[in-house]
Each structure stands twice: as structure tokens, then as C-alpha cells.
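Objective 1b. Sequence-to-structure analysis of Membrane insertase YidC/Oxa/ALB C-terminal domain-containing protein.
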Amino acid sequence: MSYLRTIRTIGHTSAFARHPHRTVVGRSTITPGHLQIVSQRHFSYEATVAGFWQTLSQSTPVAYVQQGMINLHDLTGLPWWATVILTTVGLRTLVTLPLAVYQNKILARLEQISLEMPELIKELKAETAYAMKKFNWTEKEARIMYNHSLKKQWNNLIVRENCHPAKTMVLLWGQIPLWIVQSVAIRNLVSMLPDPTAIEAQIAYTELTLGGFGWIPNLTELDHSLIFPVALGVINLSIIEIQAASRTKLPSKLQTIFTNLFRGLSILMVPIAASVPSCLCLYWVTSSAYGLGQNLLLLSPRVRRTVGIPAVPSELTHPYQHIRSTFAAKLGALSGRLGPNNQHPPSTKA
């Protein structure tokens, strides 16, 4: 793969550029810096950020995704806007959709074993009361033994069902790295990285300038209409509100904090998306739209049974009707709050 070869070449070149006067004698390395009695090192935040960005843009996963997009574009003959969308849908189907199904299975198993806990707690309390009388335990000793036994029983259930709570974050472990890698790969195409002198990079850049559609004919420029940035914010907010509306229990304080945090991040992404090339913004919108569809799809009981997610009490029988009614209630409450402020008191003039 040409991009991988380019990265290896750049790596060797940059290493030589950092130490142009290094001399190797046998296994010893001698540099002019070793001849100085005092050497000074200066930390630079800008240099650190630039070095991190360079390392990320020249990483192997980014090179594979970047070369894969070029190969798909050349093989199918699709315009670049369609190539970006097709690559996004393909990678999310291969990576994040299976992880989302698996995560939902883990959540369902955790809920199932939590239903077994009341009976186990009842038995443990009876056993603890009997042990207090038989072994003359104090209340503190009994509480320690009870908590230890309860934790052991919970861990046994987790091992039995293979549903460790840490696995409920498996979707983020796959989705965030994928989002970063593909974003950097697209940014590389726009910036002709990792080697701007490579003919393949220049061809890809030229095709991107002509591979847009509608209001964004040039994918290397910003979306001045702000259609994509605003759409990105709306889609991300929709995902958050649908997840909140699909809960059958009152959210905890931590869940409320995270929901508000993600709402803020969704709004913050709008100006960020307005400042990046439109092809990158197109990728973000496509990825978020796929996530919205994925969440809606996995709410359906029929789909959940098809992919092997067990039924649980918290599952909504008619999820789409529930979400629609929840949104209608929120809009009604909002209208009720704004209504009195817009109404003027009746005139008292004769």
C-alpha cells in the first residue's frame, strides 16, 4: 500500500532530520550534544501538539482507512461525497452495529440477574440472623459478613451470565477510536498528508475539489451555508433526547448530569463543524445519522429478538409511540411555559 510505504519513509526521514549530526560507532551513538557539559531542554506546548498530530496522522490505522477510501473511490468510480458516505456506513456496520447489539445484550443480562437479587437478599438476611444467634456476632460483624456474601453472590451471577458491567461501555471503546481514525484520514486527504509531494495525494485532493454536490461542490472548503453543522447539532440532540425518552425509570443524578453534558457538547459541535472542510463535516453528519437510525432500530422488540437480545421488564412494548408521546408532552409543557408570557392582560378601558 502506497500510503504505508510513504509513512515508513517519512518516519526514517524525520528521525534523521532530528539528529543530522549523529555518528554511530559500533553500538555507541555520539552526538555533538554529548560533548556539551550542560544541555538544556525547552518544553513547547505547540510542538507537543504538532508532534501528537503528526504521529496520529501517520499512524497505521489512519493509513489503512485513508488508502481504503481511495481504493473504494477508484474501484467504484463514485464521486467523493458518495465515497465518504459509503465508507462511513460500511465501517459503522462492521464495527459499531455489532458492538451496539452486544452492549444491549449485556445490559439485558444485567437487568435479568438483578431480578434474582431480591430472593437472594431475603435468604442472606435469614442466614445472617441465624449466624448472629449461633456464633454471637455483633451487629457490625454481621453487617460485614452480609455485605461480603452479597457481593460474592452478585459476582457469581455476573460470571454465570458473562456480563461484567465494564462491558456496557464496549460501544464507546469501538466508536470513539473509529471516529477519530476516519476523521484524521479524511483530514489527511484534504491536507495531502502524509506526503504532499506524492502524486496520489495530489490527485485525491484535486478530485475532492470537484467531488461535491449541491451547495458544497468543493469538499475541501467550508460549508458556508451551515446546513451540515446545524444538521449535526440537531441529529446529536435527537439521539440524546431519544435515549432519555426511552428510559422507563427516573434518571439518576449522574445520568442527568451526563445527559446535560452531552447536550452541551452537541451544541458545541456546531461551530466546530462550521470551521472544518465540508467533507469532514459530511462524515460527521453521516456517522451521527447512522447512530440515530441504529438507536431507533434497536428499540424495536422484534429487532431485539431477531439479534438475540433477551426480553426484560424495562423494554418498551411500543417504543416509537412512547417516544412520540414523550416528545409531545415536553413540547406541550414548553408551550405552556411560554404561553402566559406571550399573552397580554385584558384591557380595562371602558
